[in-house]
Amino acid sequence: MSVVATGQIIGPGELKRLSPRFWLARQTQLALFWGPVFIASVVVALIVNLTTADLVPVLVALIACTAWLVERGRYRSWGYAEREDDLIVTRGLLFRHVSVVPYGRMQFIDVTAGPIDRAFGLATVQLHTAAAATDARIPGLVRIDADALRDRLALVGEAKATGL
Amino acid sequence: MSQLPPTMPPAAPMEVGQTWRRLHPLSPVVRFGRVLLGVIVVAVPSIAEQPAFHHSDDGFPISVIIYSALLVLGGLGGFISWLVTRWRIAEGNLQIETGFIRRQSLRIPLARIQAVDVISPLSGRFLGLAEVRVVSAGRGAEHGRLAYLTAAQAPVVRARLLALAHGLEVGTPEPPSLPLLHVQNGLLLPALLMRSQVLAPILIAIAAVAAIAAAPLVGAGALGSAITVLVISGLGVARAFNEDFDFTISEAGDGVRLDRGLLQRRHETIPYGRIQAVRVVEPMFWRVFGWARLEVDVARQSVSREADRDAQQVARTLIPVASRDQALWLLARVMPDAHPNPPPDAGPPARARWKAPLSFHFLAAWFGQRYMYARTGRVQRSTIIVPLVKVQSVRLKSGPLQRAFQVATVDVDTAGRRWQASARCRDESEALEMVRHVSERARLSRRVPPPRPAAPVPVPAAG
Questions:
Q1: Which of A76, A162, B101, B177 could form a disulfide with A104 if both were Cys (CB 3.0 to 4.6 A apart)?
Q2: What number is the average pLDDT over the span B433-444?
Q3: CB distance B420–A162 less than 8 Å?
Q4: Contact B396 A97 (CB under 8 A)
């Protein structure tokens, strides 16, 4: 965890992490893609009678491992904190982002869930402000948590709402 | 207002817009005029080249029949569209109903109006017509266009919309405006020509001519592309000159007024408190003369339709060219207490030079009680000033290279579409401080009343 990501904006331990189920979902997604690719590469290696062809599955496995590592890093980089007056979202492995969105500026909140998310009972909460550049998105929350977070945000947002 | 008798006499000037009204009967003519011109441009050459066997039995070229049919259909469509379109101002909304097959009913809450423009295109000016265009925040198709009203009606409608937007009485007349600055056309043209888009290709062309002696092929190639670029940027200059011709900025009780345009006159009104950000732009060659340009950003929706191409030009010019003193004076009018000169410690740490070698000399960011300032640019120095009241979110970004140099970028977003104040390559711990302070002050700034424009100060002399 970089100094920048948590640092002095919020105290350590205040940052909430994503559900481990989200990591499971991501791994499933990875497996769904890399599994068939790996099998295909093995088949190719068996059919093509060349020594260099044997390297292909190894290469695919290496790339898959890297993808797994990157995905794990990204999963770990996600975090959010509900503070008194604003919401903080951190994300990104290579390019770190720390977004601060005051509750009063929220325009509306989206809760979305894709097919894999739904299979794992997860949902994504997205905050929208009047600024198009705001990218406060919290993926991989357990459905109940996501709904609760949405309701909480909507409540404080309404209480502290300000115009443009 | 809601208890009006149904048999109200129409069109007493002050009653404009309370009952359902149609647009001016000549509006389809103006709207259709451009299409007509386009069709003629396409049709005439193709008819002229018509081979004989394409003629029908009567001797008329078939294409003439097709084009006339298209014109008649288009004219009919325009007429029907005029017939079914009506508008009124009622219940705190600007209401527009339109559409023949697919009825559309538009309600624009006046409290959310961001700006009101009166636009007179060339064809409309001949017929004495003008368009009122309402810019509102939000992402839907809430683009209110009243095209066209009579030139006398348009300012009345605008005054009414603005009065209601500010919560004043319905009949409040348009407040008198006080002219602030006028841009001499004799200054505008050289200023536009001094932009690097124009000067750079000229310099390249000169260098290319010199190079032709040494390496004819390379020189000729460079000359050709330089001339192409020059033609394109020349068109840009002509367009900008047309848009900003006879530029006058004035101040009224309800906002800043901008009047500009050669062929198409625009009268824009930006209400106070709707300005999301102001940018001071100083292109490289302008700094020699001490000129500057001011642009403002207002909140508005994303516009993607071709028909609204004018509106896509999201940033508005507050003053196309002025001496730096005048520009700063004007800035102080729209943003009281803003100080766009960086304090000595506003620059990034020296090691940021390795991350941003080209723009390092201009990078600066600082904030005060009311505003956040960020200066960027490689050859063109631009300073963005964002009122902390308007800050929507604050973001800290750091890429791998930035982390290697222990610097980070702080972005401050507003509801404007165009810019975010970007404090680039700050020291990491300073960036964290900045995020914390800016977000806190943005929150607190909502509790104090917004600053009103300061008392008039005389305009500084042109530099």
A1: A162
A2: 87
A3: no
A4: yes
In chain A, residues 17-56 whose CB comes closer than 8 Å to chain B: none
Interface of B with A in 251-280 (CB under 8 A): 274, 276
Nearest-by-Cβ selection for A99 from B137, B276, B393: B393
Nearest by CB to A131, from B398, B408, B413: name it.
B413
Contact pairs from chain A to chain B, CB under 8 Å: 101
Extract the tokens encoding B75: 């004219």
**Model confidence, pTM:** 0.78
Average pLDDT of chain A is 85
User: pLDDT per residue over B318-334, tens digit each?
Assistant: 899 999 999 999 998 88
pLDDT for B254 beyond 80: no
From the list B117, B256, B118, the residue with the least C-alpha distance to B177 is B256
Q: Average the pLDDT over B272-295 and give the result.
A: 89
- Asked if A98 lies within 8 A of B396 by C-beta distance, the reply is yes
The two tokens of residue B391 are: 């800050």
Q: How confident is the model over B211-229, as a mean pLDDT?
A: 83
**Chain A residues near residue B417 by CB distance under 8 angstroms:** 132
Residue A154 to residues A143, A144, A159, B296: CA-CA distances in angstroms? 16, 15, 9, 31
- CB atoms inside a 10 Å sphere around CB B421: 26
The mean per-residue pLDDT over the stretch B12-41 comes to: 75
Q: Which residue of A6, A100, A129 is the best one to mutate when testing the B interface, meaning the one whose CB has the most B CBs within 10 A?
A: A100
Give me the DSSP letters along B380-442: SEEEEEEEGGG--EEEEEE-HHHHHTTEEEEEEE-SBSS--EEEEEEEHHHHHHHHHHHHHHH
**Residues in chain B closer than 8 A to A102 (CB atoms):** 391, 393, 439, 442-443
Which tokens in the block code for residue B337?
A: 């207490």
Query: By CA distance, what is A129's nearest residue in B?
Result: B392
Q: How far apart are CA A55 and CA A161, in angstroms?
A: 59
Q: Which amino acid is at A131?
A: A
Question: Given the structure tokens 């729209």, which residue do they identify?
Answer: B334
Q: Is A99 left (phi over 0), alpha (psi -120 to 50) or beta?
A: beta
pLDDT at B323: 92
Percent of chain A as helix, strand, coil, to the nearest 5: 50, 25, 25
Contacts of B392 in chain A (CB under 8 A): 101, 105, 129-131, 134
The residue among B452 and B189 whose pLDDT is bigger is B189
How many CB atoms lie under 10 A from the CB of residue B383? 24
Please state the separation of Cα B373 from the chain's center in Å: 21
Distance CA A157, CA A104 (A): 5
Contact criterion met (CB < 8 Å) for B398 and A96: yes
Identify any residues that bridge with B88 across adjacent strands, giving them in sequence order: B95
DSSP3 helix / strand / coil % (chain B, rounded to 5): 40, 30, 30
Indicate which of B112, B314, B393 best probes the interface with A, i.e. most A CBs within 10 Å of its own CB: B393
